[in-house]
Amino acid sequence: MTVTLPDAGSAAFQTLDAAALLAALPDPVAHLTAGGQVTLNRAAQARMAQTGSGDWTALFQPGSVPTIQDAVQAALRGETRQVTVQVVDTVAPGLLTVASASGGALLHLHVARDPLEVALELMDGLGLGMTVQAPDTRILLVNDAATRILGLTREQLTGRDSMDPEWRAIHPDGTDFPGETHPSMQALRTLQVQREVPMGVYHPQEQDWRWLQVTAIPRRAPGATQAKQVTTVFADITEKQAMQTEMRRRERRYRSLVRATSQIVWDAFPDGDFQPPQADWEAFTGQSPAQYRGVGWLDALHPDDRAHTIADWQRAVRDGDLYSTEHRLRRADGQYVPMQVRAVPVTDERGQLVEWVGTHSDLSAIREAEQALRALNAELEGRVQQRTEDLARVTRFSTLLLTAAGEGIFGLDARGITTFANPAAARMLGYSIERMIGQPQHDLVHHHHEDGAPYPLADCPIHQTLLDGQTRRVERDVMWHAQGHAVPVAYVVTPTHDEQGQTSGAVVMVQDITERIRAQGQLQDLIEDLERSNQDLEQFAYVASHDLQEPLRTIGSYTELLARRYQGQLDPRADQYLHFMQDAVDRMRSLIQDLLGFARLSRADLTLTPTPLGDLMRSVQQNVQGTLDADGSSLTWDTPDQVMGQASLLTQLLTNLVSNGLKFHRPGETAHVQVTSRREGDMIHVQVRDNGIGIPPEYHARIFEIFQRLHRRETYAGNGMGLAICRKITEHHGGRIWLDSSPDQGSTFHLTLPAVPS
Predict the structure, then answer these.
(1) Any idea where the PAS domain is (predicted)?
(2) What is the mean pLDDT of residues 513-524?
(3) Which of 268, 270, 410, 516 is the most buried (most CB within 10 A)?
(4) Given this model, what pLDDT does residue 549 score?
(5) For 668-684, what is the mean pLDDT?
(6) Dihedral-angle region of residue 740 (phi above 0 means left; psi in -120 to 50 means alpha; beta otherwise)
């Protein structure tokens, strides 16, 4: 078919119904007669209704009215003019065409939507504050999200500049953030984008500090040497900042835990090189930094263990995965010690490997070390995951935001129809972007629950946000892949609003949590296995110890009868044998009693009450009074604090520590034990110091294990259970115990117990 394009003056146009054409136009049109009579089409009438005025000039800013009146007069004289006007409630200027028509003037208004309005609306929908500032940093425009984040009204913000002394801003370290160094000022001065600058601002409504991440983008005309505006976008990261602070605190805590429960803690570069300083390694192996630098640490390994150790280490470095192996490590005295070796890769917020953190643990203490390392590994993985999520939430301006984001992003209109989707969303759910746009989002990807049951639209959090305009966060749900399988997801639904403040749609940010769920399941299985193993061991120790008492009581009774009846009637060697038997029975009875006490302690329910340490020490003194009187030893204390605990167990704990100090004194010297306490935050730090024989550093962890003795029984009596019971009581109270000691320098036992709340 051939199409003929006539000009406006042709007969075809002259036969058209002009009134119908003008009424159908979407742009406002008005007809003014020479006598001042005005006729408006539907679009103009709609705009007039918004102004609430009967005067058609109320559609325009006052400064544009004289220009329009001149154009009308020219049209009445037969001229046609086009003038630029400023329309009320519209940022972008309008183009007004005024032409002569039917003895009057015909006015046609065309208003384009300003891209800046679109940007402000998009930032509102994403929960990001946005301001536009003049070259002197006066704020020209501001969106609703900025008023909420800053706690100021639009009127309070408009016209304000970065040098206003009423701004209260600080750096992350708490120092002042002067106005001349604000990101907007820097962007104007350097004409460079200032990206993701952290800033703390005071929120006057909540009377608290908010943490922002600020990006300032200068705008200048082509060829200009100075910026004409600066656009500043900022996100409220207060919650993220608090979580990062907590992560750093927990990292320090777990590093301390690892150091307290392991013999050696070390770190290595991302490529696997072992570099100084490594204080723990030097103290244990006796190697100098020059000897262990790079891969020199292999010389401290048993020759038969080097090959598999190298293979495991190279694999971990290559894959950036958990390193775990066992080998024998040469101690400074030349003895090889079997070691369990673990290391975890530590990554930054971009997921880049920055270092390895590892431990060497004596296999006799592997149970406690594995638990500590598992907690540290989980904490590090949580930090990496959290930082990855935080980075994924950092939005980019306009189209860059949608195409570069790692999470899936959907845009929905008020009916739930998908209006946009980024590539990540398409990849996650197996659809093309074109296939998703224009489809009801719920019917396409959110139609069923994880168990296959239908998902009613009324129950869908996304649909509920479209109805009530409330932001929602869902930590666990599923969306359905194009191939028919469920994809586990977490998502955030943020409403968008139109010019009247009504909910016009929503933005949905979706994250695939398949790997997170798998990791959580594996971790839960490990925890359950460990708890089950500990319960079995405690039950075995209790039952075995209890059942051993009856045969031992029989042996002891008959041994005593033999000694009483036949003492002196047999040869001296038989009397000596009977003495050995009685001594063995006594030792066995003591061991069983200690083991029973240890097992009962594991199953006991604690009743924590405020307990003065001074009262406990007076009970301890009564318990050891016989020793003090026998050899002239002394016990002093300065313990003004109160702790939350069970008095009977704490008395046993302190009695064991004081008795050790009195027992292990240097030959020829009188023992002296001093006990002190001081408050440290929510805990009470207790120190038990003696002037005894001391303990070499390599045995500091070992002495807290059951049945661990460092001296012959003939030299110092005991069963090797006392310090194990001390550690169990301390940990049951939520504290920890450790040792500072050197040979011939005495020992100081440290323990922490919960303080009575202020």
Answers:
(1) 121-173, 401-446
(2) 85
(3) 410
(4) 63
(5) 92
(6) beta
H-helix segments, 567-612: 572-603
Of 305, 304, 376, 306, which is closest to residue 346 (Cα–Cα)?
376
Identify whether the C-beta of residue 730 lies closer than 8 Å to the C-beta of residue 751: yes
Query: What does the alpha-carbon distance between residue 242 and residue 246 come to, in Å, rounded to a whole number?
Result: 6
- For residues 617-631, one letter each, b for 16 or more C-beta atoms within 10 angstroms of the residue's C-beta and e for the rest, the string is beebeeebeeebeee
- Asked if the model's pLDDT at residue 7 lies above 50, the reply is no
- Structure token pair of residue 467: 């109805």
Q: What does the alpha-carbon distance between residue 744 and residue 667 come to, in Å, rounded to a whole number?
A: 11
Using the structure block, give the residue that is written with the tokens 């742009």: 27
Question: What is the residue-averaged pLDDT of the chain?
Answer: 81
Q: How far apart are CA 171 and CA 670, in angstroms?
A: 58
Which residues, 6+ apart, have CB-to-CB distance to 205 below 8 Å?
A: 151
Over residues 502-507, mean pLDDT: 91
CA separation for the pair 227, 192 (Å, rounded): 10
65: which 2 tokens? Answer: 């009215």
| Least trusted range by pLDDT, from 480-494, 549-563, 580-594 | 580-594
pLDDT tens by residue, 81-118: 888 888 877 766 788 888 888 778 888 888 766 666 66
- The alpha carbon of residue 175 and the mean position of all alpha carbons in its chain are separated, in whole angstroms, by 24
DSSP state of 501: S
Its CATH class, for the domain covering 117-243, is alpha beta
Cis peptide before 270 (omega within 30 of 0): no
**Cα angle, residue 254 at apex, residues 344 and 532 outer, rounded to 5°:** 85
Extract the tokens encoding 682. Answer: 């929510």
The helix (run of H) or strand (run of E) holding residue 149 is helix 144-150
pLDDT at residue 663, as a whole number: 83
Which token pair is 74?
Answer: 């020219």
pLDDT of residue 220: 80
Which residue ranges make up each domain of the chain? 21-110, 117-243, 405-602, 604-754
- pLDDT for 8 equals 43
Reduced to 3 states (helix: H, G, I; strand: E, B; else coil), residue 78 is coil
Whole-number Å distance between alpha carbons of 323 and 356: 9
Is 21-110's fold the same as 405-602's? yes
Closest CA to 151 of 86, 202, 107, 105: 202
DSSP 294: B
User: Given its phi and psi angles, is residue 330 left (phi above 0), alpha (psi -120 to 50 degrees) or beta?
Assistant: beta
Lowest-confidence segment of 20-34, 125-139, 328-342, 700-714 by average pLDDT: 700-714
Q: Is the dihedral of CA 470, 471, 474, 478 positive or negative?
A: positive
Q: Percent of the chain at pLDDT above 70? A: 81
Q: Which of 436, 434, 439, 435 is nearest to 415 (CA)?
A: 439
Who has greater pLDDT, 536 or 25?
25
Helices (H) and strands (E) in the chain, counts: 24, 27
CATH no. of 21-110: 3.30.450.20
Report how far residue 367's alpha carbon sits from residue 756's, in angstroms, rounded to the nearest whole number.
32
Domain 405-602, what fold? Beta-Lactamase (3.30.450)
CA–CA dist 290, 296 (Å, integer) = 8
Phi, psi of 258 (to 5 degrees): -60, -45
Distance CA 700, CA 284 (A): 13
Average pLDDT over residues 719-744: 82
Query: Which residue type, as a one-letter code, is found at position 569?
Result: Q
List strands edge to edge, sheet with 503-512.
Answer: 418-421, 408-413, 503-512, 486-497, 472-480
Q: In what order do the strands lie in the sheet with 229-236?
A: 139-142, 129-133, 229-236, 208-219, 194-203, 169-170
Q: Which of 512, 509, 508 is nearest to 412 (CA)?
A: 508
Fold of 604-754: Heat Shock Protein 90 (3.30.565)
Q: Is 193 exposed, middle or buried (0-12, 13-18, 19+ CB in 10 A)?
A: middle
